[in-house]
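Supplementary Methods S3. Complex input for the zinc ion-bound model.
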Amino acid sequence: MMLKIKRVPTIVSNLQKEDGEDGSVRAPGCGRNCLRPCCLPGSKLPLYAFKKLNHCKTAEEDVEEPPVAFLDSLLLGEWEDRMQRGLFRYDVTACETKVIPGGSGFIAQLNEGRHLKKRPTEFRVDQLLQPFDGNKFNFTKVGQEELLFQFEASDDGTQFFPDASIDAESSPSVVAINVSPIEYGHVLLIPKVLDCFPQRIDRDSFLLALHMAAEASNPYFRVGYNSLGAFATINHLHFQAYYLAVPFPIEKAPTRIVTTAAAAGNVKICEILNYPVRGLVFDGASSLDEMANVVSSSCICLQESNIPFNVLISDMGKRVFLLPQCYAEKQALGEVSAELLDTQVNPAVWEISGHIVLKRKEDFEGASEANAWKLLAEVSLSEERFREVTSLVFEAIGVAEDKVHGGFPLSKKPPPPDVETQHMEDEMDSLVGAHPAMVPV
Ligand SMILES: [Zn+2]
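Predicted complex, serialized as structure tokens:
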């Protein structure tokens, strides 16, 4: 049996067509200023080359001034420029956002523009690895005006070239706007865009995403990933990222250590506690490479086992959340309540992390911590399934549950959310000032 769900696809590029088709290959200069051979020759795009480090940044290295401030000037500056040029489908800065009262601090956004004028499309949700299909929408078809800069590793320290050529031979990694942003500075990182990788994690691409989080050098800039079957809608390898100046509930959830096995290097693997979605947290790596090795191997295991998952890269690449999920599968099997389906919320990485984008005013107005828990509890694997999945992952990466730390405790349901309003006012305040000063490039 093939499992499919119907959902309204999110438009991430202005060149994305309703039917995912855009006709046959055109003559040179197709008129769309795209990234294919018709339009690419002679194109230029700023290039930010980051310094490869084989350890986590020390405090000294952190104060080294890069040639351009990666987050404030380059990423947010270029993003602002595209906003001024009217490339977004709506003004995300005008969307209402609030922190939902309660101990978890879920963040709700009312975003009525994101899914307007779109018909639901069928998505196959039971096959995590699917071959790249050049006939469907992919990022080689975006207009070059949607690209912000090239992002590459450099052996010679951090460098910035405002007017670099796009070298088709080397297939650059690029950062582009998401034309349906869910927050300020919402961008896509597309590793080796011209190589046309399908949506699946590999070590080098994951390392690149970690570097992006590290270069931003700001804990409020997060990078996320959705696998196919876990609400990715485009089968062309991409990460998402944006800036939001409040802690995400998942980042505040307590954790307990599950293993520190030698095979994971210095990486500690923990499980999330007191949170509606079960997941693993990786931290304590002595380098981004070490983190990339452990997390990408875990993701590859999930991919090969056909288990949909989401990833949140937090704290400048020092913490990574790995969240296997089963919502789309339940939806396809008719096991999700009509009440939840009616909200049309797609629980991808941001929702799971606690930033919930709502499409209907009534859901926004009635948003409560209990409702957020109810939704996310449907996303989570069951206790039993989570144990099976983590065993698979640990086996794949060659670690054992740590006897010293007792491994996983026996079945324990997450406690219900406690109602506590401590820090709420602070968070409300920081949300009001969440958008940093805009620095033109
Ligand atoms: Zn073209």
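DSSP finds twelve helices and 17 strands in the chain. The chain has one domain: 47-54+69-397.
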